[in-house]
Amino acid sequence: MVARQTVCLRKAADGDRGCVVKFDRFLGNPKVTVERIIEHWGELTALAAVGRSVLAIQDTSEIGFRTHAERRRGLGEIGKGNKHGLLLHAMIALDGETGQCLGLVDGRIYTRHERQTIPHGRRALADRESARWLATAQAAGDLLGETAAEVTVVADRESDIYEEWASVPGPRLHLLTRAMKDRRLAGGGKLFATAASFAVAGRGVVDVAARPGQPARQANVELRHGEAAIRRPDGSDASLCESVILRLVHVVEPAPPDGVEPVCWYLLTTHRVGTAAAAWRIVEMYKKRWVIEQFFRLLKSQGLGLEDSQVESAERLMKLTAIAARAAVVTLQLVQGRDGRQPDGRRPDPASLVFDAVEIEALDAVAKHSYAPRTKLQTNPHPPKTLAWAAWIIARLGGWDGYPRTTPGPITMANGLRTFQAIVIGWRARDV
């Protein structure tokens, strides 16, 4: 899938019908489960996270498939009920300093079989879809907590759940979530009014991602920070503590352009935030949440084309999605690894983060044969056998000219991976 940038079985197998049949049997094998595939996601990630400060970013994306009344493929409703598909809840791990993707951590893939008739607020947390936020955060602690120096689970507003604040954090496991609601505080008052009462601690500029009808832009913002003890909501589990003390970082755009929605972030975290510098660090952590949106794009419209799959059943589509998620992460790692940026004193990520030993041999042969140094600007500037070194070679195979005035994107990487896969087939067969 990575090499050919498709989940279409026929295309991924390069027309080899026997290979298609084998893979179809794999998807249909009852011993192959979505849960086991997801469990495998984190094995390499845990190794890559050793000693690092890790951002574990989680979010949910709807995967829509073409269906009609006679062929629903066992898929439930998504969106507003006008489409059918499944939902992928995924967590990816990033190096907290560089933003480099270390791999997938955990997640859940499911489809809705029926509409809920009991209101959301009257159901126990275990019976609500939102339980996935807690389960995935806890999985991050279990998988990475023993090896990483620190883990911060980052999520958007849907993850602002009191049960999560009260039960998940640990000594090296932190939460960072954008507040969804104007919560009541233990000492009286409300969260948003309290944030507005904090003194301005600094001013700066943040990049705002493009939205439908609004291009990407930069916003001049004010920064405030302080502490807030949020009160346990009425109707929640009475065994939970009555309040949780969190740090609140408020980022607001006081004078947005006409007709533009202003930036207004209420960021809640379990990290200590005693200075403006610490508050800006929280903002930088939260901004890295957008990497998971790139992951979803690589999985769908700008990469593997998962939503075009014609696999016939929901069970097989869920397994296919679990495998495709791993392929999308590998592509993301290559795109990120293209410039090789690392903090001072940090060793570059090895090519083995993505490629096996035989593939690294093939990369080395391609580098020596096709991309031997000619001019300074067209010389691979990265240390051999590193991820950046590999990404540079893959980008050249994808049509990039090697000059630093441009940077290769996902499409270039996809084209390079397709070419490289053909090379690897020949390389593996060289001694046959």
How do you describe this structure in short?
With 432 residues, this protein is an alpha+beta fold. It is built from twelve helices and ten strands.
Write the topology of this structure.
Blueprint: H1 9-12, H2 17-28, H3 34-48, E1 53-65, E2 76-78, E3 83-95, E4 101-110, H4 131-144, E5 150-155, H5 162-167, E6 173-178, H6 191-197, E7 200-208, E8 217-231, E9 243-252, E10 264-269, H7 276-287, H8 291-299, H9 314-336, H10 357-370, H11 387-397, H12 410-428
Parallel strand pairs: 1-5, 5-6
Antiparallel strand pairs: 1-3, 2-3, 3-4, 6-10, 7-8, 8-9, 9-10
Helix pairs in contact: 3-9, 8-9, 9-11, 10-12, 11-12
Task: Explain what the structure shows.
This protein has 432 residues and is α+β, with helices and mostly antiparallel strands. It folds into 2 domains: 9-336, Alpha-Beta Complex (Transposase Inhibitor Protein From Tn5, Chain A, domain 1), CATH 3.90.350.10; 351-428, no CATH class. 34% of the residues lie in helices and 21% in strands. It is built from 12 helices and 10 strands. The protein has helices at residues 9-12, 17-28, 34-48, 131-144, 162-167, 191-197, 276-287, 291-299, 314-336, 357-370, 387-397, 410-428, and strands spanning 53-65, 76-78, 83-95, 101-110, 150-155, 173-178, 200-208, 217-231, 243-252, 264-269. Strands 1, 2, 3, 4, 5, 6, 7, 8, 9 and 10 form a 10-stranded mixed beta sheet that branches. Strand 3 (83-95) and strand 4 (101-110) form a beta hairpin.
